[in-house]
Amino acid sequence: MHIVDFFVTKFWQTLPAEWQEYFEQIEMSSLLSMASTGQVDAGAPESLRSYVKDMFRLRLNYQGSRMAAADGDSQQGELWYFLDGMNPKKQVEVKLLSQLVSTVAKESQCSLVVDVGAGQGYLSRVLAYSSYNLPVLAIDSSPKQQRGAETMQQRTIKRLRGSRATQDGFGWKAERAQQLQHTVMHVGLDSTNQLAAKAHNAMPVANTRWMLCGLHACGDLSSAILKAFVESDAAAVAVVPCCYNHISEAPRESAAVGFPLSSGMHGIQLGQNALKTACQATSRWDSCAEATLAAFRRNYFRALLHHLMVAHNQVAPNAMAPAVGKVTNTELQAISVSVDASSDEIAFTTYALAALTKLNHAWRPTAEQCVECYREHGSTGLQQIAAAWTLKSLAGPLVECMLVVDRAMYLAEHCSASGRVSAFALFDPVTSPRNVVLVAQRGNA
């Protein structure tokens, strides 16, 4: 189900009657606990309790960090030199992933790390200029990102050459500046040969071992990094995937796809609705209650607008709804509504007109038509949407689990008997919902 189609398809009526009755009488706070922790009120139907239990039982363990205790806090002090531009979330992610990459590089005897989708180069700089002291090739598809990374690289070098760094015992040497190289390249599912060639050209010593890494590599980029590992002589890979909704699937004419990669998942197709659901961060709903409730309301308004457009023959019932995206406060404030209605009815009317304006749609409903549409469903409709979104989002981690397992099986299919493949939670799932890292190492030569 796509939440926009909720009213048009009469999705609520497809749920068991006992589920409908239960959801229409509980507080929305119970939905947040259900999604975040799996807790279900004692009065819930047994079939609903079983569904929630299964969704939690079948997912991966997204809690904890295998690397949290690695190296202790030995890097905490020197991390100060690399904080420029990093928010607290990014700081933790870079610290933990750089620890892991350093460990894997050492175990796999790698003399070069290729950071794919390097962006502003946060991870690259820590790997190259901290005590990890790893030669790094930072690759990104955006020239703007590369220029930004190079500017920040010079700022970091300036700090490392300063008096504080000298007092801290860094002992900066000019030749270390060459330890980090930047290049612009689009890395796709069909460009793995070019990526390997770039790595070989960047090697400090010819014919040495190298590895790939990526922090929150978006959509197919994660699959492309893993494919590059499999199809090259790279010794290891460590990647944290992100943005599952941008993963491509079969069928695509004579083109590689991001899912499935493994022979074990061959023939399975998830679809865009499922991939989008995998992006839901239910683990943080409880701790971000206000934002979650606001998201429920946005989904409600968007589904109501689609219902209104179908009712007035502006879009066919079975047609794909136009993508509105987030309607900003500025766009809402540009709409003036004059109608005798409640604040909620006026809020929906304002949203509907602002969304249609954003879509450059020629049709505009009257304020009275918008109010009538809202009154048809009222607060009950919001409660129903919230429950349906919760039920749908509970399956998100299970879809993510399928993606992770597919990628892990793909790596295992192509690693030698002496190699290793693992997938585990690296970050806190509340602050970093996309927290699973995939690691593969070929056996040492």
UniProtKB/TrEMBL annotation:
<dbReference type="InterPro" id="IPR052220">
    <property type="entry name" value="METTL25"/>
</dbReference>
<dbReference type="InterPro" id="IPR029063">
    <property type="entry name" value="SAM-dependent_MTases_sf"/>
</dbReference>
<protein>
    <recommendedName>
        <fullName>Methyltransferase domain-containing protein</fullName>
    </recommendedName>
</protein>
<dbReference type="InterPro" id="IPR025714">
    <property type="entry name" value="Methyltranfer_dom"/>
</dbReference>
<dbReference type="Pfam" id="PF13679">
    <property type="entry name" value="Methyltransf_32"/>
</dbReference>
<feature type="domain" description="Methyltransferase">
    <location>
        <begin position="89"/>
        <end position="249"/>
    </location>
</feature>
